[in-house]
Amino acid sequence: MGSIKSEKKEKNNETHTHIISVLVLNNPGVLQRIAGLFTRRGYNICSITVGSTESPNMARMTIIVKGNDKILEQVVKQLNKLIEVIKVSDLSVNMCVKRELCLIKIHAPNESSKSQIIQYTNVFRGKIVDLSQESLTVEITGNSDKINAFVDLVRNFGIKEMARTGLTALMRGPKILKSKKS
Amino acid sequence: MKGAEAIIKALEYEKVEVIFGYPGGALLPFYDALYDSDLIHILTRHEQGAAHAADGYARASGKVGVCVATSGPGATNLVTGVATAHADSSPIVAITGQVPTKLIGNDAFQEIDALGLFMPIVKHNFQLRSAKEIPETIRSAFNIAKTGRPGPVHIDLPKDVQEEELDLDKYPIPAKVELPGYKPTKMGHPKQIKLASSHIFKAERPVIIAGGGVNIANATSELMQLAELCNIPVCTTLMGKGSFPENHPLALGMVGMHGTKPANHAVSESDLLIAIGCRFSDRITGDINSFAPHAKIIHIDIDPAEIGKNVRVDVPIVGDAKLILNNIVSNLIKISMNNNGNREWVEYLQSLKKSCTPKMDYSDVPIKPQRIVKELMNVIKELNIERKSIITTDVGQNQMWMAHYFKTHFPRSFLSSGGLGTMGFGFPSAIGAKIAKPDFKVISVTGDGGFMMNIQELGTIADYNIPVVICLFDNRTLGMVYQWQNLFYGKRQCSVNFGEAPDFVKVAEGYGINALRITNPEEIEECLKEALISDEPYLLDFAIDPSEALSMVPPGGKLKNIIDPITEHPNEKVICFDEIKRRFLEKGSNKNENALLEELSESEKDEGIKV
Ligand SMILES: Cc1ncc(C[n+]2csc(CCOP(=O)(O)OP(=O)(O)O)c2C)c(N)n1
């Protein structure tokens, strides 16, 4: 019995990365309200994406947080308390589709480096979206691991600039986030 | 109709009776509309006073209190009051004026980001962008403030929105508002309620901690039923005072840092803790790891985020305390729980209670605060106003003496700033309470420090002739801080002593308010009677012993380790301005102005070289 208890405790204290999907009313100030909550309560945000949804008065935020189970429970509960939050869901990592978009401007002063980068880009199913004498800009979409792998690969050419959106995600299957359960 | 008139109409629709406020440029249209309205407006002397008064009104009545302030400095002055209401879940609606919408963002005169400023200290806030939003927004604001876990709602109101024409027939005040993201849970989960009932049935050393939520939910009679049915002793938090009559044999008094010995022992030794509407703040738990070490914990709260936040919980029940307690009681009646259980446990706690009955009948000069509390209780009893009196306290020793020694028997009759611990709350909140309950005697117990933080409100009670009785525990020190410095910082008193000023009696008299200074304990009773019987504002300035300290659990300590400190008389030397001047001049005396200028240009040269 004692051992089970201590095991449980350990599990609770372990830090995980969580994907939290939040459906919010698209009101002015709502982003500040949510970001403020995280700062005030000392939760760590790894990334946050915001965008429109199927309905014009709502926006979806996908927040990546690191924390143990207790922190995560608080994050979800505190988010739920906000009046403008319609629904919060902790998407279990395996049960959702998640994507991140990354734009990378890579140093490519000659043909050989250009063609090499184009090859890599094809393998990663990316796109060349801009081209100049000494650089290429690549668009890559996928989960974060895939993007990290690509970034590692082209690092030696010299990354001039990079912009990542952070993860956005939806649940797999027919289930959707609807109004807050009461 | 103008937007401002629509706001007044919407406030009237919410049955608002009184507004506490302070006008200004950005609110001129609002105040102009108020001119034609029957709403009572109380002009306080500072916006903080308005917010605390609205809060006191809400706490005393359970209705939503309303305060208004102009943009910029008006809004910032409101902040402390709104944050105080937020920390104690008190329903108020705070309206601030704002610069016209087309100027927002331009750093216009008296512009401030009020939406951002209030965001972290309110349950929700709105900024109106057009008059047609008024009917629905005001409706939503009141709805949010008073339902679920109550709290303050702020509305930012640009000047042009107040002036904009609005056709209320086209945009009527809605009977109901739909807030898709706001659905507070009321009914507790039946399974959890069943589980809780069976825990209560089996427990041998149960104890209830009643928090402010019991008062807010009007669940005091249900709490009484549960306690009496199952013979469970009850302790309260500061905010829970009044939720259970403290003269009841099962009452143990307040728990926590400044709690009573029986309450702290009960929690530490219990095998089942039933916490209702409390948030287990650090002032209650002390060292979290040794808090109620042998107990299973049932936690009932309307706010799911409070459950599991600070302590581990075995049976969480989210919902309205009144409904949940009702369900638990009927469950227990069904399984024929009776009040013969827990006999030994209750007897043990009662004997503990008897053994530490506090001494209060001191006849020392200067007066001991305990004596004032005792006389106050006696006079209230003698005048037969126990059901018709409200105490507000300020923050500090005065608050803890009252919490500890003053027996409260009725809900909403002991108002205090618990969560934020705001000095300056006591007096203005008494004004709000008196207006909410005009037929009650309202007594503001306060320290001299906290009183001086909102002393200007003497002007308000004088002008409107609001018969609040101020009991000033005048020890010429910031007593609570002074006690901590004595206990935990090696008696190094630093900036905790006031000098001779002011003469509070003269200050009150300057406002035309009756005032008495009491230095002899034998005069306390008579003076209290005089003030309470008169129907006029009164200031009673009690000269109390500054060295009197409070028993307490050191911060972060175990609840059972209560210490009874002895402090010494204040002996801090306060330096006077002449001395400050001398020291400054001495430092600067070997430099004349030219030398300073030279030094300045030298340093510029230095920087030039660096660049
Ligand atoms: C606005 C504010 N400032 C500072 C404090 C810190 N503080 C807590 S108690 C206290 C001393 C209060 O002194 P007084 O009002 O004279 O009451 P006493 O403790 O002497 O009864 C202080 C400074 C506070 N709680 N609120």
Give a verbal description of the structure.
The complex is a heterodimer of chains A (182) and B (611). In chain A, 34% of the residues lie in helices and 39% in strands. Chain A has five helices and nine strands; from the N terminus they run αβαββαββαββαββ. The longest helix of chain A has 13 residues, at 69-81. Residues 1-11 of chain A have low confidence and may be disordered. Chain B folds into four domains: 3-163, Rossmann fold (3-Layer(aba) Sandwich), CATH 3.40.50.970; 190-355, Rossmann fold (3-Layer(aba) Sandwich), CATH 3.40.50.1220; 369-543, Rossmann fold, CATH 3.40.50; 573-610, no CATH class. Helix content of chain B is 40%, strand content 15%. In chain B, helix 3 (47-61) crosses helix 17 and helix 15 crosses helix 22. The chains are: A alpha+beta (182), B alpha/beta (611). The A-B interface holds A 24-25, 28-29, 32-33, 36, 40, 70, 73-74, 77-78, 80-87, 179-180, 182 and B 115-116, 119-120, 123-124, 127, 144, 179-185, 303-305, 308-309. The structure holds thiamine diphosphate. Thiamine diphosphate binds at residues 394-398, 421-424, 447-450, 473, 475, 477-481 of chain B. Chain A: It comes from Methanothermococcus okinawensis.
Task: Show the helix and strand layout.
The complex is a heterodimer of chains A (182) and B (611).
Chain A: H1 2-13, E1 16-25, H2 30-41, E2 44-52, E3 58-67, H3 69-81, E4 85-91, E5 96-107, H4 111-123, E6 127-131, E7 135-142, H5 144-154, E8 159-164, E9 168-171
Antiparallel strand pairs in A: 1-3, 1-4, 2-3, 5-7, 5-8, 5-9, 6-7
Chain B: H1 3-13, E1 18-21, H2 28-35, E2 40-43, H3 47-61, E3 65-69, H4 73-87, E4 92-98, H5 114-118, E5 124-127, H6 134-146, E6 153-158, H7 159-163, H8 190-202, E7 206-210, H9 212-216, H10 220-230, E8 234-236, E9 251-254, H11 261-269, E10 272-276, H12 282-285, E11 296-301, E12 315-318, H13 321-334, H14 343-355, H15 369-382, E13 389-393, H16 397-405, E14 414-415, H17 426-436, E15 441-447, H18 448-453, H19 458-463, E16 468-474, H20 479-488, H21 504-510, E17 514-518, H22 524-533, E18 538-543, H23 577-588, H24 593-610
Parallel strand pairs in B: 1-2, 1-3, 3-4, 4-6, 5-6, 7-8, 7-10, 8-9, 10-11, 11-12, 13-14, 13-15, 15-16, 16-18, 17-18
The complex binds thiamine diphosphate.
Domain Thiamine pyrophosphate enzyme N-terminal TPP-binding (chain B): 1-115
Keywords (chain B): Amino-acid biosynthesis, Branched-chain amino acid biosynthesis, Magnesium, Metal-binding, Thiamine pyrophosphate, Transferase
Pathway (chain B): Amino-acid biosynthesis; L-valine biosynthesis; L-valine from pyruvate: step 1/4; Amino-acid biosynthesis; L-isoleucine biosynthesis; L-isoleucine from 2-oxobutanoate: step 1/4
